[in-house]
Amino acid sequence: MTIQLYDLCGASKDLRFSPACWRTRMALEHKGLNYETVPTMFTDIPSIAGGGQRTVPVIEDGEQIVRESYDIAVYLERTYPDKPSLFDGEGGLQLSRFMHWWTGATVDAGIVKLVLADIHSILDQADQSYFRESREKRFGKALEEVQNQSDETLQAFRASLLPLRLALKKHDFLGGDAPIYADYCVFGSFQWARMVSDLTLLEGDDPVAQWFERCLDLFDGLGRKAKG
Amino acid sequence: MTIQLYDLCGASKDLRFSPACWRTRMALEHKGLNYETVPTMFTDIPSIAGGGQRTVPVIEDGEQIVRESYDIAVYLERTYPDKPSLFDGEGGLQLSRFMHWWTGATVDAGIVKLVLADIHSILDQADQSYFRESREKRFGKALEEVQNQSDETLQAFRASLLPLRLALKKHDFLGGDAPIYADYCVFGSFQWARMVSDLTLLEGDDPVAQWFERCLDLFDGLGRKAKG
After folding, report:
1. Among A183-187, A224-228, B145-149, B202-206, where is mean pLDDT lowest?
2. Same domain (yes/no): A53, A160
3. Which residues in chain B touch residue A89, judged by CB atoms under 8 angstroms apart?
4. pLDDT of amino acid B103
5. Are strands B58-61 and A35-40 parallel, antiparallel or unpaired?
């Protein structure tokens, strides 16, 4: 059985940039499961997987439809317990919930202000209209006013990563010697920025940057190869 | 064998307020180990456990001397694998390292600005001199200038807890249905504030406040009873 992953794409179907979809893709790789990605635009989402979806990732695993990146990871762990563990135990599964929310509230919230207009620029025309309208409503101003790549904004973003930096200072991954789902969770956000923008988010000697490079090398360089 | 925990105290030896010492104490309780606390003032630290210590907690377990709250938790887990697990697996142990740093960089860093002068007020006279000198050097201003309990500071602190709030919204503990070390790690910080100050840190309907109340009830109300 091949799992279908509905994976957000840009105007180019090969441009896969959603942080949450990257989490799921890395989780599928880690589990060593057969899967294929279905390129999906924002405006396709309501019609995928039988309809009624509002966000991606969504996976179809036979009859099962599962959505939300953390819930998908838990589903994969429970459904395929004999495959390599995403969490290394129940404590890891529970704390990955915190990691999910920390990533959203800190990393994603920081990155979105740095690249919001860049995201718009890689979308298909229909998606561009949807994206501009929905995001300008959410932020209360134009995409180009939200996006701020000033040195001050970058410094504040880098400072917000302090706990990640300290946790990675003496370890290759959040999982220790090897990556676990928490690594993929945070990786997705940096990969998102990398896929849509040429902005240098991190300084080269930052342990976070070095960890991200290690993540780009995983699974035969899957993340690295995704950007030509 | 009874483990000795060197536990920071105020002018009253019964007033135990160190966030890191509370982490260790809750971990010892969780493990169900025999231990006793040794009330220790800041100015006692250099002479405890054979000398050369700079911070507490320090534990003595027979010949073993272990320091630093996270390292102590890992030591207890590895040394007493048959006792209830603090991490529920290796993934939990690894992600607790991130939780440790997140707590320090976010929760402790926020609380210290709210209660720094309150901490001073509960110390013994010799400790007061040490504390004022070392902390005023660290912050570059008077304790009373650092401490700011304005509504704006409180709101910013509460906002910084968003990932914790979201992770606890549908779960009793960071560990899920039952507490694990990550809960004790964050608990220690809120207990620190509670022990030294009457400031209301959290609004009553905040899931974080409700989780903290559950933590105060653990181990026959150990944390709650610590403050008369």
Report:
1. A224-228
2. no
3. 87-92
4. 98
5. unpaired
Proportion of chain B above pLDDT 70, given as a percent: 100
**Residue of B94, B166, B182 lying closest to A174 (CB–CB):** B94
d(CA A176, CA B87): 14
Do B123 and B97 lie in a common domain? yes
A96 vs B: CB within 8 A? yes
Residue at A84 is within a domain? no
Q: What percent of the residues of chain B are helix, what percent strand, and what percent coil, each to the nearest 5?
A: 60, 10, 30
Do residues B38 and B6 touch, judged by C-beta distance below 8 A?
Answer: yes
Phi, psi of A66 (to 5 degrees): -130, 140
Write the pLDDT tens digit of every residue in B112-125: 999 999 999 999 99
For residues A160 and A78, the answer to whether their CB atoms sit within 8 Å is no
Taking alpha carbons only, the member of B81, B99, B101, B98 closest to residue B89 is: B81
Q: What is the CATH number of the domain that holds B126?
A: 1.20.1050.10
Q: Do A99 and A197 belong to one domain?
A: yes
- Do A68 and A170 belong together in one domain? no
**B168 CA: distance to closest CA in chain A (Å):** 8
Domain region containing B200 = 90-225
Is residue B177, in this structure, part of any structural domain at all?
A: yes
- Judge if B73 and B130 occupy the same domain: no
The distance from CA A66 to its chain's CA centroid, rounded to whole angstroms, is 17
